[in-house]
From TrEMBL:
Gene3D superfamilies: Periplasmic binding protein-like II (3.40.190.10). The keyword Signal applies. It is found in: Periplasm. One of its GO terms (cellular component) is periplasmic space. Keywords: Signal. Its main location: periplasm. This is ABC transporter substrate-binding protein. Residues 1-22 form the signal peptide. It comes from Caenimonas sedimenti. It comes from the Bacteria. Belongs to the bacterial solute-binding protein 1 family.
C-alpha cells in the first residue's frame, strides 16, 4: 500500500476511534404512566433538558403503564438479563427488588463526600420506604401522602365554616352528616364523605390505622399486624360510615371516580392522594381546601408514590450515567418544579427553599399541606412478597366493606394469609 494511502487510512481510523470515544452512553428509563398525556410530555421535556446539559448521555424513556405493570416488566427484563438501567417504581416494592437482587444500593454509587451529603438531603419520612437492611436502594421522586379535600361552597351551604375542615373522626362524621343530601325518593344526591376502596384500598385503610395510633407491619417487612384491635376499630369506623351513619357510599368506591365525584359536587369531602392536588386546582370550578387527615388518637398518613432505582445488571458505565441522571432529576429546582406541576411532594428539604416553591406556597398554601403532614407520616405498607401480602389485605377490606365478613373476621383472615406468605422470611 502506498505511503499516502496508509496515511489516509490511519487518519480515518483515528477519526473513527475519536467518534466512537465521543459516542454518548445510552440508558433506558422505565416510567410508570401510559403513553401520552401531560405527564409523559413533562418527563420528555425533562429528559430533553438533561441531554442538553449532558451531551455524553442519551436517555430512552419507556412508558410502562401502572406501577403494577411497571414492576412486573422491570423484573421480567431483569430475569432475562436486559433490565432497564433506571426506573421509577413503587417505593413499597423495595423488598421485592432487593430479594430479586435486581437493584444497586445508592450507597455504592454515592462515593464522594458531596454525593453522601446529597443522599442525606431528602425528607426523612420519605426514606422509610427507601431503605432496607441499612442500605439506601431507592431515591424519592414522586412521593405523596393522603389528603382530605373539602368543597368550601358545599360547606357554606350546609352552615359549616368553609375554612375549617374536620380535625377528628368525630368531626368528620358530624360534618359528613350535615353535608349528605337526599332527594324526595330517598336517593343520595350528595355524599358527605368518600374514601376510595379500589386501586389502593390498603393505602387508604392505612390512613385510618395510622390515625388510630397503629402501624400495619414491622420495619423489616417480615411481619404484619392486620388484626390488631386498633386496625379492627379503624375498619369498623370505615364500614360504619356507610352502614350506620349513611354518609358514605356503600360497597366498593372506585379510586378513579373519587376525584371526578368531588369535582361534580357529588361528594363534599374526599380522601385521595396529594398527587391529585394540581389537577383538582386546574379543574375545580369552586373553592376547595386540602387538609391533613383527621385524627382519632393522633394525626397520621402513610407516605406513597415512587422512587428511582438503578439496576444491578446494567453495565458500570450505564449505572454511572443513570446515577448522574437521578441526581439531576431530583435537584432542588427540578423537584420543586415537578411538585408545582403535579402536586407531589418536593422530596428534598432544599427544594422548599427555592424561589419558585416559596412563591408557589405563598400563592397556594394547600401545596404545603402534604409536606407538613410528613411530620405525622408512617411508612407505607411494604413487606417481602409485597404484592401478595397487600392483595390479602385488600381482599379482607373488600369483604368487610361489602358486608361479606365482619371487620374482625376479615382482618383475621388477611393476617393469617399474610403470615403464611411471610413465613419463609421469619428469622
Amino acid at each position: 500500500m502506498p505511503e499516502r494511502w496508509k496515511a489516509v487510512l490511519a487518519a480515518l481510523l483515528l477519526a473513527a476511534s475519536g467518534f466512537a470515544a465521543a459516542a454518548p452512553t445510552e440508558i433506558s428509563f422505565y416510567f410508570p404512566i401510559a403513553v401520552g398525556g401531560p405527564m409523559a410530555k413533562r418527563i420528555g421535556a425533562l429528559v430533553g433538558d438533561f441531554e442538553k446539559e449532558h451531551p455524553d448521555i442519551r436517555v430512552r424513556p419507556i412508558y410502562t403503564g401502572t406501577y403494577k405493570d411497571s414492576i412486573q416488566k422491570a423484573l421480567t427484563a431483569h430475569r432475562k438479563g436486559a433490565p432497564p438501567d433506571v426506573a421509577v417504581l413503587f417505593a413499597v416494592d423495595i423488598y421485592t427488588l432487593v430479594d430479586a437482587d435486581a437493584v444497586v444500593p445508592f450507597d455504592e454509587l454515592a462515593t464522594t463526600a458531596a454525593d453522601k451529603a446529597w443522599l442525606q438531603g431528602f425528607q426523612p419520612a420519605l426514606m422509610a420506604n427507601s431503605r432496607a437492611a441499612g442500605r439506601t436502594y431507592g431515591v424519592p421522586f414522586q412521593r405523596s401522602t393522603i389528603l382530605l379535600y373539602w368543597n368550601k361552597k358545599l360547606f357554606r351551604q350546609a352552615g359549616l365554616d368553609p375554612e375549617r375542615p374536620p380535625a377528628s373522626w368525630r368531626e368528620m362524621t358530624d360534618y359528613a352528616k350535615q353535608l349528605t343530601r337526599r332527594n324526595a325518593a330517598g336517593g343520595t344526591t350528595q355524599w358527605g364523605l368518600q374514601i376510595p376502596s379500589s386501586g389502593f384500598p390498603y393505602w387508604l385503610f392505612q390512613g385510618l390505622v395510622a390515625a388510630n395510633g397503629a402501624e400495619l407491619m414491622n420495619a423489616t417487612g417480615t411481619e404484619t399486624y392486620f388484626d390488631q384491635p386498633a386496625a379492627v376499630a379503624a375498619l369498623q369506623y370505615w364500614v360504619d360510615l356507610a352502614r350506620v351513619s349513611h354518609v358514605h357510599p356503600p360497597g366498593i368506591v372506585e379510586w378513579g371516580t373519587t376525584p371526578a365525584n368531588f369535582l361534580a359536587g357529588k361528594a363534599a369531602m374526599v380522601w385521595t392522594t396529594s398527587g391529585n392536588l394540581q389537577d383538582l386546582k386546574d379543574k375545580a370550578g369552586f373553592p376547595f381546601g386540602a387538609a391533613m387527615l383527621p385524627a382519632a388518637k393522633r394525626r397520621g398518613s402513610p407516605t406513597g408514590g415512587g422512587n428511582f432505582y438503578i439496576f444491578r445488571k446494567s453495565a458500570p458505565a450505564q449505572q454511572q450515567a443513570a446515577f448522574r441522571f437521578v441526581k439531576w432529576m431530583v435537584a432542588p429546582e427540578r423537584t420543586a418544579r415537578w411538585a408545582i406541576d403535579s402536586g407531589y411532594i418536593a422530596v428534598s428539604r432544599a427544594a422548599w427553599e427555592t424561589p419558585a416553591m416559596r412563591k408557589h406556597v405563598a400563592a397556594f398554601p394547600a401545596a404545603a399541606v402534604a409536606r407538613d403532614q410528613l411530620a405525622h407520616a408512617v411508612a407505607e405498607l411494604s413487606t417481602h412478597e409485597n404484592q401478595r401480602v397487600t392483595q390479602a389485605l385488600n381482599a379482607g377490606l373488600a369483604a368487610a366493606l361489602t358486608g361479606a365478613k365482619t371487620p374482625q373476621q376479615a382482618l383475621q383472615d388477611a393476617q393469617q394469609e399474610a403470615m403464611r406468605i411471610l413465613l419463609p422470611y421469619q428469622r
